[in-house]
Amino acid sequence: MIWISITFYYEDCKEEYSDEAFAIVESAASILDGDEIYEYVKWGDKAKGYHDVENQMNMLLNNTQGVVKLSFFIPEQNGYLYLFQVGKEGANLSDNGIIIPYYDEFSKYNDYFKNKEVIDEVMFNSDKSVMFASYPVRNSNGEIVCYAISDVYMSFLSEYARDYLIKIFLCFSGFVVMIMVFGFTQAGYELVIPINCINKAACEFLDSHGDQNALDENVRKTRSIGICTGDEVEQLYRTICQMESEMAEYVRDLRHFANTTRKTQTGLIITLAGIVESRNINSTAHVHNTAAYVRIILNGLKKKGYYSEKLSDEYMEEVEMSAPLHDIGKIQISDSIINKQDELTNEEEEIYKLHTVYGRRIMEKAITIVNDDTYLKEARNMAAYHHERWDGKGFPEGLHGEVIPLSARVMGLANELDELIAPRGFKISCTLDEAIEIIKSESGKKFDPKCVDALLECISDVKTVINNSNFRRY
Predict the structure, then answer these.
(1) Per DSSP, what are the bridge partners of residue 447?
(2) Cys-Cys link to 450, which of 120, 159, 306, 409 (CB 3.0-4.6 A)?
């Protein structure tokens, strides 16, 4: 638009200055008396009326805008004989009364002047930097005696065009800036802000990591944005709202299914573990109680800040779920040993100790079959090492201290607590206080001191488990 505008402007100005150049030479020719020309040639500026004519030409020139020089000349055979020349500042003037040779660049027009013919078109020099207009001056007989010439320097026109170009450029630039500001503002309200809101809501939804409450809250937040742009952005927003809602419901259903499956799995594990433990489907108290004590000890450790790098929610859930399988190896021990009411002989004791080795083999085989260690890894650790001691005098490998897996240390303490307070076989159960004293005496020897400390922190929870069992001895 700027280029087209400046082109039109340039053409209009050129036409305007052309008309003005012709008008001034016509007016100048009417001022000069053709019969006095030769007096001016003969006497120069001393001729009568010479200065009056020159002054009138100056006045005429000053009242025009584009013309910068006005002159009269007589075409001779060898050049132009100048009679008068007046010009504005910057005009290139020659001395009056001298002959200027014909220019080669005006060869097209030189013959017209020599033959004293009328030229009714605009003339240009070779580089088109100067425009000329001519008009003949006639004597009383109608003969052409000289020519009036006006010079228009195109550099003036270029300056005007440049100024015009700058103004047009500034106007268009302002208009473009206004459009850009409006466009960016609209894009911000109609595109950028909505998309950023959608992106933020989607990221928060993803950051929920399956937490149902967080998922539901993020679905509510996304719906509260309320994008109503009436275009593809709104359609995208509604699609994301629907996707998040369906995903939240899917996770809710999946979690419900997983909980149901976990309950079923836990029930089967506890029942089977009870059968393994005592060969009696109704004897599952030990399995229940030890699992409950494991949970109590783990919660106590977490509450006191022990093993915080290890005790994640997932780890604690895996250990609690694996606890009923700690004696799975007893399935390969003879019923006569498992159900013996009297104290075991040394030989029977050694056979009994093998249930830890058998338990590890069974769990390792299970891990291989399902190709997923998850909670089975902790079940293997508890089955293999729940009889190891803190001082290294346990079995089957004589591990000591924190070399023993944490889950096995917790299981060993829970197992000992239940054996002390629950009547089993030939053993007479202790009161809870007596059991606690025995456990305290073995802290740092048989048991991890931190696990003992965690258990003592949660005695009220232990009493709750005892109340819910078949025995009530405190």
Answers:
(1) 443
(2) 306
In this prediction, residue 341 carries a pLDDT of 77
CATH at residue 34: 3.30.450.20
Domain span holding position 133: 2-160
Listed residues 104, 134, 160: the one ending a domain: 160
Q: How confident is the model at residue 281 (pLDDT cuts 50, 70, 90)?
A: very low
Q: List the CATH number of the domain containing 335.
A: 1.10.3210.10
Q: pLDDT for 1-54, tens place per residue? A: 777 877 777 778 778 888 888 888 899 888 888 888 888 888 887 888 888 888
The total number of structural domains that make up the chain: 2
Take residue 67 and report the two structure tokens written for it. Answer: 């013309």
- Judged against a pLDDT cut of 70, whether residue 470 lies above it is answered with no
**pLDDT tens digit string along 226-267?**
888 778 888 888 888 888 888 888 888 887 777 776 666 655
What angle is formed at CA 276 by the lines to CA 270 and CA 280, rounded to 5 degrees?
85
Q: What is the mean pLDDT of residues 209-216?
A: 80
